[in-house]
Amino acid sequence: MLAPEKxxxxxxxxxxxxxxxxxxxxxxxxxxxxxxxxxxxxxxxPAETYKTTxxxxxxxxxxxxxQYKVGEDTINGVTxxxxxxxxxxxxxxxxxxxxxxxxxxxxxxxxxxLHISSMDLQHGFSLQPVNINLQILPNYDYVAxxxxxxxxxxxxxxxxxxLLGHHTMIGKIIVK
Amino acid sequence: xxxxAPTTPWIKGAKxxxxxxxxxxxxxxxxxxxxxxxxAVMAVICLVLGGIAALLIALTRWQAIHLLDATWFxxxxxxHGIDMLVAWIVFFEMAGLHxxxxxxxxxxxxxxxxxxxxxxxxxxGGLMANFVxxxxxxxxxTFTAYVxxxxxxxxxxxxxxxxxxxxxxxxxxxxxxxxxxxxxxxxGSLPLAVFGLLTAAILAVYTLLEGAAAIVPAFFWxxxxxxxxxxxxxxxxxxxxxxxAQQVNLAAMVAIWYMLxxxxxxIRPLNEKFSRLAFILYLFFINLGSAHHLLVxxxxxxxxxxxxxxxxxxxxxxxxxxxxxxxxxxMEVAQRxxxxxxxxxxxxxxxxxxxxxxxxxxxxxxxxGWIGGVTGVTIGTEQINMLAHNTLRLPGHFHATVVGGTTTxxxxxxxxxxxxxxxxxxxxxxxxxxxxxxxxxxSALVSLGMITSGLQGVSRRNWDITxxxxxxxxxxxxxxxxxxxxxxxxxxxxxxxTIVLASILTGPRKEPEGLLxxxxxxxxxxxSTQLTDEQMEHPRNQPKGTLVLVFAFLVWFAMYYLGxxxxxxxxxxxx
Lengths: 176, 575
Ligand code: CUA
Fold this sequence. Notes:
The complex is a heterodimer.
Chain A: H1 14-40, E1 49-51, H2 54-68, E2 69-75, E3 78-83, E4 90-96, E5 99-101, E6 103-106, E7 112-118, E8 123-128, E9 132-136, E10 140-147, E11 152-158, E12 170-175
Parallel strand pairs in A: 3-6, 4-7, 6-12
Antiparallel strand pairs in A: 1-10, 2-3, 4-5, 7-10, 8-9, 8-11, 11-12
Chain B: E1 18-20, E2 27-29, H1 30-61, H2 70-101, H3 112-135, H4 153-182, H5 192-223, H6 231-264, H7 272-285, H8 302-309, H9 311-337, H10 346-349, H11 356-379, H12 385-388, H13 393-422, H14 429-455, H15 474-505, H16 524-527, H17 533-537, H18 544-569, E3 573-574
Antiparallel strand pairs in B: 1-2
Helix pairs in contact in B: 1-2, 1-3, 1-15, 2-3, 2-4, 2-5, 2-6, 3-4, 4-5, 5-6, 5-7, 6-9, 6-11, 6-13, 7-9, 8-9, 9-18, 11-13, 11-14, 11-18, 13-14, 13-15, 14-15
The structure holds dinuclear copper ion.
Dinuclear copper ion binds near residues 160, 161, 162 and 166 of chain A.
């Protein structure tokens, strides 16, 4: 609070030097972990993105559902198509207030290219309980290459505020 | 050490327009005093509004109670974000800037007219934002107002008014520094606390400019003048404002930590170079943190995200870890020099625990570092963010930093502002002794309840998570911990507001008699100047205990951080 003495540029003490070194090494470790995991880890944030528009993406979703529909199921009283595409293919998920469309069906251990985009507002793709969370924006076709490693029924929660029905925006992914 | 003030007025021929504080020996410009009072009063008003909202939304997310309907929940959530995260803290910081650029330098306020203009704009903007959110259903867009959510044009205008007002106030801070230097009000370098505030002010300038870059186009877009607004670009600019704004808080809070430590324990910074270097690291690297909010956004590469989220190389984190050592170490040395040399922690046991400023300082440092800092760095790791984005872990992190850390420190500092600036006797002193601990325990439980809920996938900003039907039963428990914590924290908040109101609204104006509120008649601030180099360097007075504490911190940090990589490794493969 008070003015420092005239000459405050002094060498650091032994303990300051020790802590500074240890803290710096820790920061380097924190930095190295990310590229290390990027090359070695199995869970990385998708970066693949394409420009799109709501109407264009909607057309693709509809064509995809028509081609690969295998059944129907209900969420919140609304009947939705269940869609299963062969492993390795591009699959599409549409976010809109307040629905995830359609219900996707996967095989455990197979790879899928999951495209997600929004028709209107920003939404949050939150797959539970595996707890993978991605931000979904309109006009951005976000592609996640995924391999489900567990079977069962998984819920997609919307975790970005999208007006008053936000908490009712629930979707489903089935893994066999 | 600051010389005792001469009694000549600032300007030739003018009446005495300042007073000399008998306790701190500082000169206080009367304009500064009025500006500080105005800003502090607005800060507390916003704290009350945001606090009422906090209570109601916490009682809604506490699933067993689930108080509000969805509309009111999201409405008050919007209000809570604006009043707490921005209005309360920024008004308080503006008071701090006026104080730091004049009283701490024995200088006059060189631009009071400009400062009042800024204040009025901020006050109008802040109150207008509250009004619009309360009465316009379209403006329930949460604090972040992510495009394409479209609020009322007045909503954006209120943000702009507030930000421009704040920018003007920050400019008066720089004017004051320059004028003080030119008029030779102080000699040599700026005091460390002012240096910290200067860091905060520089950060604030580009923070507010980026805020303008996000909000001004949104304003025109809401008027229909701008046809399209890319949501990704909005997010980038918004967080160019929203994240650095928290770093402004950080720099201001650390400056207040140094002040509280000097006022209650009488520290002399161990090494000015070390502490100043830590502030400079903030200055250069902390603005990259905007990326923390974009880690799982489409359209951005791994390299961009990794470089930005890590502040180039966690160099801003290094800055915080340096302060985390230098402040407790300086406290330890000062306490040891006073004779508390027993064992590793005798200095800490014998701290002035019943002095509100000391309690607030310790609570603030623990919650900020051990909970806020550790969880923040972890969820700010590019890949780990996939587990945390938009879950309750995020508000869990920033309630530890902004509530448990910054707000506790600001509250503790207020108790000294009341006698020294308002010149009123502090009432309800016993309450003031307990308040930091009550508030700290409450905010710690809030954070822990949120973080543990978020780890189970519970999303933030969600009126009713049970819709999802996937939430494990333990979530009821963790949300209850959050709810109970909120009740305790609100109790602490009510104590704070009651103490402040009781002190400033009742009783006559009274010149302060002592610096400490309950800790005795001595004056640690002035004692700090008597610490000799010999005492500082004596082997018996070296901060061994602090070194043990910071290494314990590092172990906890590493455990939490590596534990999260382990969690990530168990989820689905994704690229
Ligand atoms: Cu969609 Cu929230």
